[in-house]
Amino acid sequence: xxxxxxxxxxxxxxxxxxxxxxxxxxxxxxxxxxxxxxxxxxxxxxxxxxxxxxxxxxxxxxxxxxxxxxxxxxxxxxxxxxxxxxxxxxxxxxxxxxxxxxxxxxxxxxxxxxxxxxxxxxxxxxxxxxxxxxxxxxxxxxxxxxxxxxxxxxxxxxxxxxxxxxxxxxxxxxxxxxxxxxxxxxxxxxxxxxxxxxxxxxxxxxxxxxxxxxxxxxxxxxxxxxxxxxxxxxxxxxxxxxxxxxxxxxxxxxxxxxxxxxxxxxxxxxxxxxxxxxxxxxx
Length: 283
Known about the structure:
Blueprint (H helix, E strand, L loop, with lengths): L2 H17 L4 H9 L1 E4 L1 H7 L7 E5 L2 H18 L6 E6 L2 E6 L16 E2 L12 E4 L3 E4 L3 E8 L2 H5 L10 E3 L5 E2 L2 H9 L10 H13 L6 H11 L7 H7 L6 H16 L7 H12 L1
Parallel strand pairs: 2-8
Antiparallel strand pairs: 1-2, 1-9, 3-4, 5-6, 6-7, 7-8, 9-10
Helix pairs in contact: 7-8, 10-11
């Protein structure tokens, strides 16, 4: 697709999404303070159908309002499920779920996902179908990212691969392309621009390689250098570094480490211990 068509697709998607929001205050916030970026624009540039449209928001107030709106809607639609709680800590919005979760595990701190157990096209469009600590997934291929907010530049400072940094702004309707992102897409070469979450980047790399992308040793070294600065034996650091990795096994790993620490005050995480759990989980 060319730039004009992509812009039209995003504008239409945004307008359709806005129609589903019943709270006028929330609708105005989303209307004026949204940024669509990430894989959807990259997919359209490659002539592929987007898996979903990633929404980010430009300010904390919008993130809070949007999160409360969809969490409330999820609770009303699913009174049989444990109620998620929205908390704002250190200028970050989190969704906590105190329940056994969909995998039957108890999680007192509540970073388990909860999901709409039934997918039905006759149900309302853009309804919340999955809630996690970092994002709200809606039906009709929309994901609301609550982990980060701010300008496009601030949001992309958390990104890893440069081909995902083109973006569309709801307030102006402007679609911005970056030359480096376009070059990366055309060559299908992964260029690592640096990230706050290099471990996540290494795991995500597998997905792109399966799709025929390429990466040189230098880009991998850049990720490894950043990882070397992290203390991954600190469970909080390890958990934070796996932000955005949609692998349930990593959730199992983190929960296992937390449980062990709670039951044994003298327990210290070691590389062999983690390796043993990984082998059991991943096979």
